[in-house]
Design goal:
Length: about 325
């Protein structure tokens, strides 16, 4: 099995996003950030202080946020529209569909504090719908970085992209998933963190780290896992998906999103339509009133944890072998 070392860091992907945008803005005056009372939560206070002419604050008005960002992009600006994911993709869905995607304005929509990052603030502040909503919209890519390296690379990619992109970040401090020098990021291509022939664990965003820890635990039970950071959900890396589904005994997908309409259903739909049959499980938030608690407590409740993933993997392989 490949090296599974995880190097801890105290930096969240949102912090890396803001630092990377600052670096880009320092050499490119066309970089513009638009916020909806989200400078603090988006870690963009410093950006606004350093680049006041490249930052626009619209207040708590997400529809205006997207409309202004689209207008700036249509004038040649490289625009990042930053707002909590739950509000950005729900309150301003029409503007995303028409002003950004349909009009082909190359806005980078940045959904911060995503998934259940807001914890006890509850369902009004959870973004468990954003993959499902935006996957149904033509002409927008969805990128969900797992660690700081992927985040920096994804932001740089988005700044030079001539079509719309949705970037999704949580609030947690994230570990580096591979040792320095072994990282690789390619838009539209899943990142294989470690390889094993028994089960493929395909995750995105902050769920990749517990997936990798689960793989280490599974190895002690002689179950060897491939762990993939499927950072690009749209377009999906179908070649990699088909490859692991054809070579592993089972596939599990993991996401901090509803089990409906996200990474898991995208993978399942592709495999079924290709006639690729493999034991398969989607792990995410079920269709119910979400429990209240911290992000970690909520994810643990739904099995999105090292132990929960291990249990699911063992059960799936046992069912396959019956």
């Amino acid at each position: 099995m490949a090296d599974q070392n995880i190097h801890t860091t105290s930096t969240s992907n949102q912090d890396i996003f803001s630092k990377t945008v600052e670096q880009l803005a320092a050499t490119d005056t066309n970089i513009v950030v638009v916020t909806s009372d989200s400078r603090g939560s988006g870690k963009l206070v410093s950006f606004g202080q350093k680049f006041p002419d490249q930052h626009i604050e619209v207040g708590i008005a997400e529809q205006n946020l997207v409309g202004v960002a689209a207008g700036l992009a249509s004038c040649g600006k490289k625009t990042f529209a930053v707002s909590p994911a739950c509000f950005l993709t729900a309150r301003s869905f029409e503007q995303i569909k028409n002003d950004v995607a349909y009009s082909n304005n190359p806005v980078t929509l940045v959904g911060i504090s995503a998934g259940v990052s807001y914890g006890a603030l509850g369902s009004t502040h959870h973004s468990l719908h954003d993959f499902a909503a935006l996957r149904a919209v033509n002409n927008i890519s969805i990128v969900v970085p797992a660690d700081n390296f992927e985040t920096a690379a994804a932001v740089a990619y988005a700044a030079n992209c001539n079509t719309p992109v949705y970037l999704r970040f949580g609030k947690k401090a994230m570990p580096h998933l591979q040792e320095t020098g072994k990282e690789n990021f390619e838009f539209g291509k899943g990142r294989v963190i470690t390889s094993g022939a028994d089960i493929a664990i395909i995750a995105c965003g902050e769920t990749v780290a517990p997936a990798l820890e689960a793989a280490k635990k599974l190895a002690t039970q002689n179950i060897h896992a491939t762990v993939i950071s499927m950072h690009t959900i749209k377009p999906l890396d179908t070649n990699l998906l088909a490859s692991v589904a054809n070579t592993c005994k089972a596939v599990i997908t993991i996401e901090e999103h509803s089990v409906y309409g996200g990474l898991g259903e995208a993978c399942a739909a592709y495999l079924l339509q290709q006639g690729i049959h493999v034991a398969f499980k989607i792990m995410g938030i079920p269709d119910e009133y979400t429990v209240t608690g911290s992000q970690t407590e909520i994810l643990n409740h739904y099995g999105i944890s090292e132990s929960g993933i291990v249990d699911a993997a063992v059960r799936l392989i046992q069912q396959k072998e019956k």
